[in-house]
Amino acid sequence: MNNLQRVFSEQAEKKAFDPAHRQTLRFNIGKYETAVKKGVLQYSHIENARRYAARQKEHCINNLEHHLITFESRFTARGGRVIWAHDAREAVTAIVKILKSHGVRNVVKSKSMITEELELNTVLQGNGISVLETDLGEYIVQLDNDRPYHIITPVMHKSKKDIAELFHAKFGLNPESTAEEITAFVRAKLREKFMQADAGITGANFLIADTGSVLLTENEGNGVMSVSWPRLHIAIAGIEKVIPSIRDLQVYLPLLATMGTGQKVTVYNSIISGPAKSKEPDGPAEMFVVLLDNGRTNLLAKPEQRSALRCIKCGACLNYCPVYKNIGGHAYGTTYSGPIGSIITPHLKGMEYKHLSFASSLCGKCSEVCPVKIPIHKILLLNRRDAVKEGFRTAQEKRVMTGYKMVMSRRRLLNRFSPGVKNLGLNLFFKKSWGSRRTLPHFDGPSFNQEYQKAKVKRLK
Ligand code: SF4
Q1: Helix axis angle, 179-196 relative to 160-171, nearest 10°?
Q2: What pLDDT does 315 receive?
């Protein structure tokens, strides 16, 4: 067991048996499930939309280089600049360089998981640049010096009471403040910061190749503000975010909204095609798009697993996953948690994260709800296979599995062991992984096979 796995097991156990945590998660996910049930009613046949989206995305991933180059040429023709970053270090170095060369002191940021992947806030603050999160959930996370808990709902693990108490401690607000009161307070605070910011940093929900545009979808308007006020806009996007045509949005946007939050469509959808033109009153004077690989091409190189790159980050697989529902997001110890995090992290960060492939009941619910039909539970199994192929297993695991295979494939040998020996074997080799809160199965009397043979012989007589 490596250190990452040990920490994961400890954290998972701690969270799974924390009743207050479970109650908050159950309440927040319950609200989500009700909204999605209603949301899908807008479709007469959602399966057709899912099939179309899956096919389109798959085609796009298989022709990624073509669409990325088209995006680059169209976007640069509109006055934007593109930076290709092989890894996180290249991306943050380029971003810091741009910000410094523009004399930026204050940055406003809209919600984006990719900036978490780059640990951008820490790097910028280390370079004397202040960063302010402007999405309400992310603002709360930043205020509490916390990390996002979920790819769509960063404060999924906090109750209304927790948040009101945080605002009381930080700003002296009434500890009984309502959600509306807290939102109004944050809105007023942020308005001023938007006006003072030198640069806006955002992610990108989609990169549209044929128009050379970045699409931002959000519910609070903070994304629009982050790109409208400051004179500089940097959008950071994983290379898998590109889609061939603006026409594809008619499928992706409702699917993303419905499966993400149960909405028909998200409130603000902005298509940003380069810096502001001479007669446009709003928008930045300069705009950059950072195209990030950071391990995505490792996944692309695996034909059986590359469908994971179809992900549109709706978060549905997290909300329906029985493991996520119990252990929450932080236990994973990764930027992307839940089923999607478990399948992509070993490719983005290395097979040291192979233990996440086992953080699953393999019930298949994640694959069932995924709007782009990623066979998540199958990829979990493929990752397990690859981890073994690449030698990511301990000598003890190897010995146990070799012995297990030898015994289990020889029925006669298995029948020779008494129940006592079988119980001893279970205790010796499986007790630890079975966990202290479950009782190991107990072998008793003759095996099913022995009983069956006896019954067969009797019948033949
Ligand atoms: S894997 Fe599918 S369900 Fe999970 S976040 Fe991505 S698109 Fe949504």
Answers
A1: 50
A2: 97
Residues 266 and 224 grouped into a single domain: yes
Please report the pLDDT score of residue 88 as a whole number.
98
Q: How far apart are CA 129 and CA 124, in angstroms?
A: 5
Q: The domain containing residue 322 runs over which residues? A: 1-42+312-393
User: Measured in angstroms, how far is the CA atom of residue 33 from the centroid of ligand 1?
Assistant: 15
Give the binding-site residues of ligand 1, using a 6 Å CB cut-off. Answer: 311-317, 340, 369-372, 374, 376
- Last residue of one domain, picked from the residues 231, 264, 294: 294
Closest-CA residue to 364 (of 382, 383, 377): 377
Q: Is residue 328 part of a domain?
A: yes
Last residue in a domain, options 238, 259, 294: 294
DSSP letters spanning 326-377? HHTTGGG-SSS-HHHHHHHHHHHT-GGGGGGGGS-----HHHHH-TT---HH
Domain annotation covers residue 306: no
pLDDT of residue 411: 87
Q: How far is the CA of 256 from the centre of ligand 1 (A)?
A: 9
Residue 66 to residues 42, 48, 208, 212, 333, Cα–Cα distance (Å):
34, 27, 12, 13, 34
Residues 32 and 56 in one domain: no
3-class secondary structure, 83: strand
Secondary structure element (H or E) that encloses residue 238, with its range: strand 232-238
For 217, the token pair is 């979808």
Number of domains in the chain: 3
Residue 329, domain member (yes or no): yes
> Within this chain, do residues 75 and 38 fall inside the same structural domain, yes or no?
no
- Per-10-residue mean pLDDT of the chain, 461 residues long, equals 90 94 94 95 96 97 97 98 98 98 97 96 97 97 96 95 97 96 96 95 98 97 95 98 97 97 97 94 95 97 97 97 96 97 96 94 96 98 95 86 89 87 89 85 87 86 74
Question: Would you say residue 301 lies in a domain?
Answer: no
The answer to whether 368 and 362 have CB atoms below 8 angstroms apart is no
Span from the CA of 311 to the centroid of ligand 1 (angstroms): 5
pLDDT at 264: 95
Based on the fold, state whether residues 321 and 441 are members of the same structural domain.
Answer: no
Q: Which atom of ligand 1 is nearest to the CA of 318?
A: 4
Same domain, 72 and 187: yes
CATH of the domain at 57: 3.40.50.10420
